[in-house]
Specification:
By secondary structure, the protein is of the alpha/beta class. The chain has ten helices and eight strands. Helix 1 packs parallel to helix 2. The radius of gyration is 18 Å and the shape is globular. The structure holds adenosine monophosphate and manganese (II) ion (3 copies).
Length: 284
């Protein structure tokens, strides 16, 4: 049995839509008491070697990580990969392809925003981007807050960039099967990120869990910055019901935006199998 309690296996750096570097995140994780950390940039593993080295320097344990965008039942679902080989060629190519449509999508988002009187959103969002291959809605949100169109990012996602609102451009991401296969073929383990956040019916969620499991998926996030305390309980029960291990992660993006800091979450409920117990051989 693992003695680790403070694992934080979900956060973002400037390599995707976070505002801190991998080195700054490692130092912050260590200062907050994190014992085991993973950097999980969206559709990117370009920060993995830096993050592992920074974890070592700060005296904390590390698992490789990523968060892959997937389209399932016409919704975007996020699949976290943990403990994979960061130099795996098939996974790198798959993620490269997944990032591919983001530039064109961003231009279309900008055109839509221009129609409601918000000019220059593409160029404005680009000023917040650390990785030119990874322009995301978060970068547009920062532009809209900076420009005074909204008070904060939650308000942005209520008024813009989401289905039915200006600036929303539907996008087809990776398939569930591809994402789980890339992770597991690279000796990693696949986790459904923040399952409480999707707008699924009970039947759709059931289909997601069963299909994920059939492709080799092993865990779901239970304690995450994206869940309410009631959802910790709901998804703890579902982890037991479906035979999934459980993960814990803040989904930290920025000191100015994230309500949940690295390592500052409740522990996983004691009856669950922590996902890191299945990954002991992959911990660095
Ligand atoms: P994208 O991958 O470009 O579709 O951007 C998705 C990112 O937008 C997520 O990873 C979050 O960082 C951010 N996001 C999405 N919905 C919200 C929300 N309701 N509040 C705050 N951030 C959000
Ligand atoms: Mn994000
Ligand atoms: Mn996510
Ligand atoms: Mn995330």
């Amino acid at each position: 049995m693992s003695s680790i309690l403070n694992a934080d296996l979900h956060c973002h750096s400037v390599v995707s839509d976070g505002t801190l570097t991998p080195e700054e995140l490692a130092a912050r994780a260590a200062a907050n008491g994190v014992e085991l950390w993973a950097l999980t940039d969206h559709d990117e593993i370009g920060g993995q070697h830096r993050a592992a080295a920074a974890a070592r320097q700060n005296g904390i344990k590390y698992l490789t990580g990523t968060e892959i965008s997937v389209t399932f039942a016409n919704e975007t679902v996020h699949i976290v990969g943990l403990g994979f080989d960061p130099d795996d060629a098939a996974m790198s190519e798959g993620l490269y392809d997944t990032r591919g449509g983001r530039g064109k999508r961003a231009q279309e988002m900008s055109e839509q925003l221009a129609k409601v009187g918000i000019q220059g959103a593409y160029e404005g969002a680009l000023r917040f981007v650390g990785n030119p291959e990874l322009i995301s809605r978060t970068h547009f949100a920062r532009f809209l807050v900076e420009g005074g169109y909204c008070r904060d990012t939650p308000e942005v996602f209520r008024k813009y960039l989401t289905e039915g609102k200006p600036g929303y451009v539907p996008h087809r991401w990776a398939t569930l099967k591809d994402a789980v296969t890339w992770i597991t073929a690279a000796n990693g383990l696949a986790v459904i990120a923040h399952p409480g956040r999707y707008k699924f019916t009970a039947n759709e969620e059931y289909a997601l869990f069963l299909e994920f499991k059939a492709h080799g998926g092993k865990a779901i996030e239970v304690v995450t910055g994206s869940h309410s305390p009631a959802e910790y309980v709901e998804y703890a029960d579902k982890a037991v019901e479906f035979g999934f291990a459980a993960s814990r992660g803040s989904d930290f993006h920025s000191p100015d935006e994230s309500h949940c800091d690295l390592g500052k979450l409740p522990w996983l409920p004691g009856n669950l199998t922590p996902v890191w117990e299945l990954l002991e051989h992959r911990i660095q």
